[in-house]
Amino acid sequence: MVARVAGVFDEKLTEAIANSKILVVGAGGIGCEILKNLVLTGFPYIEIIDLDTIDVSNLNRQFLFHKEHVGKSKAQVAKDSALSFNPNVTIIAHHDSVISNDYGVSYFKQFNIVMNALDNRVARNHVNRMCLAASIPLIETGTAGYAGQVELIKKGLTQCYECQPKAPQKSFPGCTIRNTPSEPIHCIVWAKHLFNQLFGEEDPDQDVSPDTADPEAAGEAGASALNTEGTAAGNVERKSTRAWASDTNYDPEKLFSKLFGDDIRYLLSMENLWKKRRPPTPLSWDNLPGKDSPTAQHSGLPDQRVWSVHECAQVFADSCKALQADLKNRPEGDHLVWDKDEKSAMDFVTACANIRAHIFNIPLNSRFEIKSMAGNIIPAIATANAIVAGLAVMRAQSLLKGEIETCTSVYLRPKVNHRGQLFVPEKTLTAPNPKCYVCAPKPEVALACNLKQLTLKDLNTAFKEGLNMQAPDATVEGKGLVVLSSEPGETDHNNEKTLEEIGLNDGCALLVDDFLQNYEVRVRLQQEDEEKSWRLVTDTDTPMPGPKEEATANGSNGSDEPKPGPSRPKDDSDSDMEIIEEDDNGEPAPKPPKRRKVDMSDEIVELC
Ligand SMILES: Nc1ncnc2c1ncn2[C@@H]1O[C@H](COP(=O)(O)OP(=O)(O)OP(=O)(O)O)[C@@H](O)[C@H]1O
Ligand SMILES: [Zn+2]
Asked: Lowest-confidence range among 127-131, 500-504, 594-598?
């Protein structure tokens, strides 16, 4: 291996490598490349953590995996394949989430360097905090298509992963999705919401029925249509879509007639909407376009040609039945999670999105194109992963040599800049943000909420979703009174009480900590009568996203976040690297850097 070949590295580095212990988090596109580089360089001790199993779609770029490995643990197979290049390495594989109690601060402390090769914000935030708590250098990596980035995070010396507020994620107004779609993506989002309404986790913000509260339709919304009462929120009061579908035994024809016939006629009755738009055309099951052009006459791969509306209806019927059967086989109360790689789930969304697109005179797309839009896929480029992994391991070598000041962030550009650079390094390390609510010496943040309405349960959610804590505990500053405990049962009896009812007032400060992350933050409560839920406000006055603005990540299917455990929802924020933009001279922008979030999490719908 390279480190053992005399003269390749100087003595100091050779020795440092020989004594090093490295943790790699994630064995996906970048993780496989990093592991290969470490093993071939001669790093003697590596641990690798990944919660996922190998999917067919990984094989084109995650070269440590082959066809026969599909369904097996990524971490374990990555280890076995890497050992075949160099059996003299100790590799410990963990098929697990890094967000598990098993990997506490003392676990992190045993490593010289941690290398992140993750694909979602929650896991990145968590490793960021663990490395800050353990004071271990973290090399953070990411790619998005042809672009990429490697950055060093070291407590007190550089910015941490959470030093800059993250941009809110892509969103579409709810009324566009429900009433007036004009682009294929609007129909795809609607179809994914329909999937959740029928088979997944029901979310009131993902209603697929006509929205009578649409300001554009104001005054006479649906007045001349079905004589149905509207709720205060403007939604048509009916039985839940799931309950209704279940009553019909998921009869595809009945579902079709309601979704693509009755609901469209209802929309047509909201006349204001169509004064300046082409009105939609309701469909009838017995008379669908494309019925007379047999499938056999079409050529090309089924995924890459656009299905006729008639074919879409057939696929709709078949996938509905398959998904209903899948749901039936699960325990009472369980639900399906939309996954672009699950055949029936993807077929269902393709068919529904295209049928709706036809109704609204929007171009139809192939299953392949819809998959890429529905999964928020920016194609992963194997070369970009390999370059970023190479840069990351070079940074690891510099760290081991003690040349930390040379470990500046490096950006891989999709094309060369006017200086002919493809790799643009920062000139210096980026200093921490003194107001960062994670890595500042005394982290602080304000929580804007209506204390008269926010319950203790909501507060717990705010700490988990807003502050990315796993198991928050909160006490009143100065009084030591326990408001929220992560020990089951200790404060649960107060869950439904409002913050006011448990004696918390405007300006009151809570000390909130997460034992696993070894992280404590002072949270000042800020009364806002208008606030419907909660919103974090940092000291820099940059509003932090509240629950409606930011994806409850990787979560992407409503919940993009990977959950601890050996499997995770697939449709999550597939990658969420950040790219620091250059200034006009092709230099990295002056500090603090402007950050553009490249986020592929699931869309969030804003209600209009
Ligand atoms: N909490 C976590 N703990 C451990 N590993 C994680 C965690 N969250 C994500 N990962 C892993 O990080 C890796 C990221 O790799 P990559 O970005 O190539 O994603 P992928 O899932 O392999 O590919 P794709 O999303 O394109 O299908 C994945 O293997 C994923 O399982
Ligand atoms: Zn920070």
From this structure: 594-598
What are residue 195's DSSP bridge partners?
none
Q: Indicate if 334 and 385 belong to the same structural domain.
A: no
Q: Which ligand 1 atom sits nearest the alpha carbon of residue 572? A: 25
Instruction: Indicate whether 393 and 275 sit together in one domain.
Output: no
pLDDT at residue 289 in the model: 84
**Which pLDDT band, with edges at 50, 70 and 90, does 77 fall under?**
very high
Rounded to whole angstroms, how far apart are CA atoms 89 and 42? Answer: 8
Instruction: Give the pLDDT mean for 485-509.
Output: 93
Q: What's residue 102's pLDDT?
A: 95
Question: Which of 361, 388, 414 delimits the end of a domain?
Answer: 361
- In the reported structure, the alpha carbon of residue 172 is separated from the centroid of ligand 1 by a whole-number distance in angstroms of 26
Three-state DSSP at 513 gives: strand
Cα gap 466→188, rounded to integer Å: 28
Residues 6+ apart with CB under 8 A from 489: none
Question: Where residue 349 sits, what CATH number does that domain have?
Answer: 1.10.10.520
Instruction: Return the best residue to mutate from 50, 94, 341 for the ligand 1 pocket (most ligand atoms within 8 A of CB).
Output: 50
Full residue range of the structural domain in which residue 293 is found: 182-361
- Residue 488: Cβ-neighbour burial (10 angstroms; 0-12, 13-18, 19+): exposed
For 438, residues 6+ apart whose C-beta sits below 8 A from its C-beta are 125, 128, 129, 132, 160, 162, 163, 519, 521
Domain boundary among 361, 393, 416: 361
pLDDT band at residue 583 under the 50/70/90 scheme:
very low
Neighbours of ion ligand 2 (CB under 5 A): 160, 163, 436, 438-439
CATH number reported for the structural domain that contains residue 509 in this entry: 3.10.290.20
Work out how many domains the chain is built from and give that number: 3
Query: 156 exposed, middle or buried (CB, 10 Å; 0-12, 13-18, 19+)?
Result: exposed
Mean per-residue pLDDT over the chain, rounded = 84
Rounded Cα–Cα distance for residues 153 and 131 (Å): 8
Whether residue 438 sits in one domain with residue 427: no
Eight-class DSSP state of 463: I
Cα separation, 200 vs 203, in Å, equals 9
